[in-house]
């Protein structure tokens, strides 16, 4: 992982920790999009990033019911192998050490809907 890759819209494979007891949170290794860089607001205590996990898009009804909350990325975007859904409602802080493979960067057009969704969710 290079410092240049740490930007909004960068896509990595990240290892999301397991929860005990487990709920509906995403766990294990999966693609994730960088949606927040705490270092943009100052020097963070720890090397954390805000990441939104990605899952395969298979025409799930919940995606079409809330398309602004679940942006769809086409296969090939930032190295993703299949059409994918960004789970904005699952965005969370992860230590940078949990990133283990850089896949690519979203284009500004691909990242725009994610940025807008984060703005709405966080009431910015």
Quickly list its features.
single chain, 124 residues, alpha+beta, SH3 type barrels, 7-stranded antiparallel beta sheet
Please tell me about this protein's structure:
This protein has 124 residues and is of the alpha+beta class. The chain has one domain (3-121): SH3 type barrels, CATH 2.30.30. It is built from two helices and seven strands, in the order βββαββββα. It has helices spanning 61-65, 108-121, and strands at 10-16, 28-36, 48-56, 72-73, 84-86, 92-95, 99-105. Strands 1, 2, 3, 4, 5, 6 and 7 form a seven-stranded antiparallel beta sheet that branches. The longest helix is centred in the C-terminal third of the chain and has 14 residues, at 108-121.
Helix and strand layout, with pairings?
Layout: E1 10-16, E2 28-36, E3 48-56, H1 61-65, E4 72-73, E5 84-86, E6 92-95, E7 99-105, H2 108-121
Antiparallel strand pairs: 1-2, 1-7, 2-3, 3-5, 3-6, 4-5
Compose a concise summary of this entry.
The chain is an alpha+beta fold and 124 residues long. The protein contains two helices and seven strands; from the N terminus they run βββαββββα.
Q: Globular, elongated, flat, extended or rod-shaped: what is the shape?
A: globular
Largest sheet features = 7 strands, antiparallel
Helicity, as a percent range: 10-25%
Strand percent estimate: 25-35%
Radius of gyration: 14 Å
Number of DSSP-assigned strands: 7
Number of helices: 2
Highest-level CATH class:
Mainly Beta
**CATH architectural grouping:** Roll
- Overall tally of structural domains: 1
List low-pLDDT spans: none
Would you tell me the overall average pLDDT?
90
Task: Say what the CATH topology is.
Answer: SH3 type barrels
- The end-to-end distance, rounded to whole angstroms, is 30 Å
């Amino acid at each position: 992982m290079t410092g240049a890759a740490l930007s909004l819209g960068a896509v990595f494979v990240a290892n999301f920790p397991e929860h005990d007891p487990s709920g509906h949170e995403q766990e294990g290794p999966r693609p994730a999009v960088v949606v927040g860089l705490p270092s943009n607001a100052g020097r963070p205590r720890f090397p954390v990033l805000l990441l939104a996990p990605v899952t395969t898009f298979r025409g799930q009804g919940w995606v079409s019911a809330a398309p602004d909350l679940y942006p769809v990325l086409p296969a090939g975007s930032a190295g993703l192998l299949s059409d994918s859904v960004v789970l904005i409602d699952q965005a969370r802080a992860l230590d940078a050490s949990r990133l283990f493979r850089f896949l690519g960067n979203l284009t500004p057009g691909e990242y725009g809907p994610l940025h807008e969704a984060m703005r709405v969710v966080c009431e910015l």
